[in-house]
Amino acid sequence: MHGQAFVLHEDPISANCYKIRLTAALLGLPLSRRAYDIRKGETRTPEFLARVNANGRIPVLEIAGASGIRFLPESNAACWYLASGSRLIPTDRFAQADMLRWMFFEQYNHEPNVATLRFWLAYIGEENLSEAQKGQLDAKRSAGEAALRLMDEHLAKHDWFVGQGITLADIALFAYTHVAGEGRFVLDDFPAIKRWISRIEALPGFVALN
Amino acid sequence: MHGQAFVLHEDPISANCYKIRLTAALLGLPLSRRAYDIRKGETRTPEFLARVNANGRIPVLEIAGASGIRFLPESNAACWYLASGSRLIPTDRFAQADMLRWMFFEQYNHEPNVATLRFWLAYIGEENLSEAQKGQLDAKRSAGEAALRLMDEHLAKHDWFVGQGITLADIALFAYTHVAGEGRFVLDDFPAIKRWISRIEALPGFVALN
Fold it and tell me: Where is the GST N-terminal domain (chains A, B) (predicted)?
């Protein structure tokens, strides 16, 4: 970590951005923050696209060090960079791949449903959704509940997603799961998830989303 | 790799499954194959859910070795397992995270658009889509084209997604990109992507999807 400085380009309401803050906090790494409002299009300006991320999205981790300034988009990749060589990434070959398995599951099966319904219902407002968005509400509800059910079944038998302690898989899945109620998911239906949330919130160094 | 045997649980039409076959072929690793037809629900049977993947999806990499038989879902995680310690994963800290960045981009921005339109249009048939699916065609078209454009801009300046040779980022993105025409994307609009496809197809050990 020596000689590196980190700036998180973020929207404070985004739990994808929060994953990176939580990773840094659990590892005791200093992290500066630069805020954008995605609802005002602040990550689609020409300067942002040219300098920070051509994909027009946050989070982006800016890394200043001996190799100059570099930008790393994608929340789970930024967590991987920060946690490289730490206890948050298992070294066993299968466990490492299994951790990534849950992180890809998070981006493919969980985030597009659990996070999108939170954004649509709690931040855009159901009355402001387009017809195309309204047409997806039921499918996203059911896919989000399936993702939460799969997590709950796993956590009924294991304290953590991989191995005997917290890894990036837990951080990635915690981010939008613990605020799933804002998307009108009912966490009381998933008791093992609720116990796992309490375990994470009790960790030394834990920081909250807000 | 000593003492391990690999079985890929797959649907031969799935390019997510093909990523794993291509990774194994480029590394010269033997891989057995067990086929399922996702259109007939063969990955949602009670046996499959109990033994292979509770998420009801393929691909799943079955790994038999000293630790017994283990199952690894998620295409990109299975590629990571197979390629662990090989030239397909850079060891530099930033390059490794940057490779994962493109693999998460693939699962979040590329696959749900480029792969889904291919499946809907070439395998389900536009006339058989539900109203909810038809309502998503335009959004998926435009998001898929944005993903391809971002790739094309990167490849106009770089031969490979990360560093000076092929990595798992190229394999993950190649899988659905090279058959994007089946989803009515026009690859002639993306000349740098077309040159990159030719580079991959010319690699020693390359195997085709079909």
Answer: 4-90
Q: How close A202 comes to chain B (CA, Å)?
A: 28
Work out the average pLDDT over B188-206. 98
Architecture in CATH for domain B5-83: 3-Layer(aba) Sandwich (3.40)
pLDDT in tens, B12-43: 999 999 999 999 999 999 999 999 999 899 99
State whether A100 and B94 contact (CB < 8 Å).
no
pLDDT in tens, B54-102: 999 999 999 999 989 999 999 999 999 999 999 999 999 999 999 999 9
Domains A5-83 and A93-201 share a fold: no
pLDDT tens, position by position, B175-191: 999 999 999 999 999 99
Angle at Cα A167 formed by Cα B10 and Cα A101, nearest 5°?
10
- List of chain A residues whose C-beta atoms are within 8 Å of the C-beta of residue B150: 54-55
Q: Which residue of B has its CA nearest to A148?
A: B55
Q: Which of B2, B49, B100 to mutate to test the interface with A (most CBs of A within 10 A)?
A: B100
Alpha-carbon span A32 to A55, nearest angstrom: 22
Mention every residue, 6+ apart, whose C-beta is less than 8 A from residue A140: A112, A113, A116, A117
- Whether ipTM tops 0.85, in short, is yes
B107 CB within 8 Å of a chain A CB: yes
Sketch the domain layout of chain A as residue ranges.
5-83, 93-201
B137 touches A at CB < 8 Å: no
Residue A55 DSSP class: T
Residues on chain B touching A101 (C-beta within 8 angstroms): 72-74, 77
CATH class of A93-201: mainly alpha
